[in-house]
Amino acid sequence: MRQLFASSLLTIALCAGLATSAHAQDDAKKPAAAPEAPAAEKAKGLKVGDKAPELKVAKFVKGEPVTGFEKGTVYVVEFWATWCGPCKTTIPHLTELQKQFGDKLAVIGVSVWERDQSKVVPYVEQMGDKMAYRVAMDDVSDKEGFMANNWMKASKQNGIPTAFVVDKAGMVAWIGHPMDGLDSVVGKVIDGTFDPKKAAEEAQAKEEKEKKIADEMKKVRKTMRDMEEAAKNEEWDKAIAKADEAIALAPSMAGQINATKFHLLFEGAKDYPRAYALAKQLSEGALKDDPRGLNEIAWTILDTEGVAKADRNIELAMTIAARACELTKNEDGMILDTLARAYFEQGNLDKAIELQITAVAKAPANDEMKDEMQITLDKYKAAKAAKK
């Protein structure tokens, strides 16, 4: 529990308050922060709509080398590191993306911020077919790394994994987390339906929002540390009061801080009436269109140990999970897995099995989560067989 609160606060800081932390199913979506690096020459700013920087790497360790962006080809340049846990989880997803689009797309994984570059080749070899796309190492002869400096630092990206989509004209079409809509963007860029002007406007709005949140983060940092410390000491009333103080200091982050407050109420204070009231408020307000945030709340209600059956609001969890599935058009296996769990807890085994079968099918091949989902499906089927 104590790790959960620290993780929630850390996620808010790393993500600049743009999304709530995901539940245990979804750690792939938590970015790993950049390590301390030596000072480097300031790179020119990079944003959506700009010409993609040079692709200058030390060497390709897997796949045919790419020396430049050819017109007519779409590229995904994705940054990762051997020490980055979330990166390992997203690798199979990138493999599926490469397989899906074939010659129309070139996925290039570039290792950056490596503490020990000698680990890269063995790591890639160990991943084998799970990492079925081009892989390169950053050129660290340029102080902190040419790619890290001219791509990541230039675009103000401080966490990995981070992906850049380069369109057929060699322009940066999109920057973001590989699990946050990358598939849809790549598909649209390839088929010509992607709107670069709209994407640039959205990126600018996002940058402005991030700046505002960063300013608020400076004001609220001490209060959030106090909230975390109180949670570690199991001083729940104090932690909840600090959460309210943080919301007053950082109103644009109210949804994210309230999501942490939900955990304080539910897992810490075990004040279930207030926790459920806040969960309902968030699901109908700040997190209404945030499938990951909704999924985390639903999963917490369903999976937290030590909650009596009478205190577990399965109906609310089901409603929240169903909304998350609606937002993702039933295409996210992890979220379907949550809804299936709600039906299982309700006793509707047929519906739970039906949804879990789809969840397994939607999970990326070679993903560890796919195996876990299959185990869950077997559990549901065994429960049904035992009732006969």
- The best one-word shape is globular
Q: Helix and strand succession?
A: HEEEHEHEHEEEHHHHHHHHHH
Number of domains: 2
Q: What characterizes the major β-sheet?
A: 6 strands, mixed
Q: If strands are numbered along the chain, what order do they take across the biggest sheet?
A: 2-5-4-3-7-8
User: What would you call the structural class?
Assistant: alpha/beta
Provide the residue-averaged pLDDT. Answer: 87
Question: Can you count the beta strands?
Answer: 8
Radius of gyration: 22 Å
Into which percent range does the helicity of residues fall?
40-55%
CATH homologous superfamily annotation of the largest domain: Tetratricopeptide repeat domain
Q: Give the oligomer, counting copies of the same chain as homo and different chains as hetero.
A: single chain
Number of helices: 14
